[in-house]
Design a protein that fits this description.
Blueprint (H helix, E strand, L loop, with lengths): L2 E5 L4 H7 L7 E6 L7 H11 L5 E5 L5 H6 L9 E4 L6 H4 L3 H21 L4 E4 L1 E2 L24 H16 L6 E7 L2 E2 L8 H11 L2 E5 L5 E2 L2 E2 H13 L4 E5 L5 E2 H12 L4 E5 L14 H7 L7 H14 L1 H4 L11
Parallel strand pairs: 1-2, 1-4, 2-3, 4-5, 5-7, 6-7, 7-12, 8-11, 9-14
Antiparallel strand pairs: 10-13
């Protein structure tokens, strides 16, 4: 491939993906560098990306149609547009619905129109397991288990973005591919998500804030597995929605124990009120991803957390000014 555009290039998944695109001649990264979480980490990722010979960065807000039109020439001759940029977070979305609607829904509409206008052959739109809500012991199946009423503002804005993109591009030759990610973690992860925050607090000997009793379970998925899934989509000549997650779940308490084992330190846990709209369990059905893309997760959580702890310890000086706390109260 000669030209790929990645939105959310300074985000967690965007950063890790771009580092795996050395075979692509021209990679353009788009990011607004918003303050959804500590911007210092985004700038640190960008500093590293700027060392790549095939990478070019453009600070652009794709939810602003005027900003997009000023730079629309970048979409010419694009082989794949990978749309990872979004405003994430279930609980935070209730505090500022308008920003989530702008970034996740309107932004996706704006990019869909650019895809249509420039005849971009492939549009990959990153989505979320939050769309499924609480699955219990059932497996979430693509295009089957979506709820009529999405369980949060965040899920609604992502779901609407998916649907509207498909409406806009219905009569085109563009392949629309929608990967739905399940609780991604790993090096350069988001500082407002549990695993990296827990590692930071335990390593620093600070109070670990745990919302609820810690028994809520997640399909924690290592970022390298997510990148492999995206690479598989780039090779796949077709459209569809695909789950990318782990086929096992772990409780937050189990995660804390694994971090303690890797750091040799004991967590000082402060149990707080259960976070608003926090689900008990979300588990993906991976048959479609496996059968069509030959994809499955390969990194077990013990190895993934060990890698993340080692990365954190090796980069403590660079991470010293990053804020790892987030207020989850509605």
């Amino acid at each position: 491939m000669k030209k790929i555009i990645v939105t959310g290039s300074c985000g967690f998944i965007g950063y890790n993906l771009i580092n795996s695109l050395s075979h692509v001649e021209n990679v353009i990264g788009i990011d607004s560098l918003n303050n959804a979480y500590d911007n210092n980490l985004k700038k640190l990722r960008l500093e590293n990306l700027n060392n790549l010979e095939n990478f070019k960065y453009l600070q652009l807000n794709f939810s602003d149609k005027n900003d997009l039109h000023k730079n629309e020439s970048i979409f010419h001759d694009c082989d794949v547009l990978i749309h990872l940029g979004a405003r994430a977070g279930v609980r935070q979305s209730f505090n500022d619905p308008e920003k989530y609607l702008m970034d996740n829904t309107l932004g996706t509409i704006n990019l869909s129109l650019q895809v249509k206008e420039n005849n971009i052959p492939k549009f990959i739109i990153a989505s979320t397991s939050s769309i499924y809500g609480d699955t219990g012991e059932q497996l979430a199946v693509e295009n089957k288990d979506e709820l009529l009423y999405p369980p949060s503002i965040y899920a609604s804005t992502k779901s609407f973005g998916e649907i509207l993109a498909q409406n806009i591009l219905e009569d085109t030759n563009t392949h629309i591919q929608i990967p739905r990610f399940f609780t991604v973690y790993g090096p350069y992860g988001r500082p407002d998500m549990s695993i990296l925050r827990f590692i930071h607090w335990i390593c620093k000997g600070e109070k670990l804030i745990l919302y609820g009793d810690g028994n809520q379970r997640r399909s924690f998925t290592y970022v390298d597995d997510i990148v492999n899934g995206l690479m598989a989509l780039m090779e796949y000549e077709g459209s569809g929605t695909f789950n990318f997650g782990s086929n096992e779940t772990w409780s937050l308490n189990e995660v804390i124990e694994i971090i303690e084992m890797n750091t040799g330190k004991k967590a000082d846990i402060s149990f707080e009120k259960r976070a608003y709209k926090d689900v008990d369990i979300v588990l993906p059905n991976l048959k479609k991803s496996n059968n069509i893309l030959n994809w499955k997760p390969t990194t077990n959580i013990k190895d993934g957390i060990m890698n993340t702890v080692n990365w954190y310890l090796a980069n403590q000086e660079k991470l010293k000014d990053i804020k790892f706390k987030y207020d989850y109260e509605k």
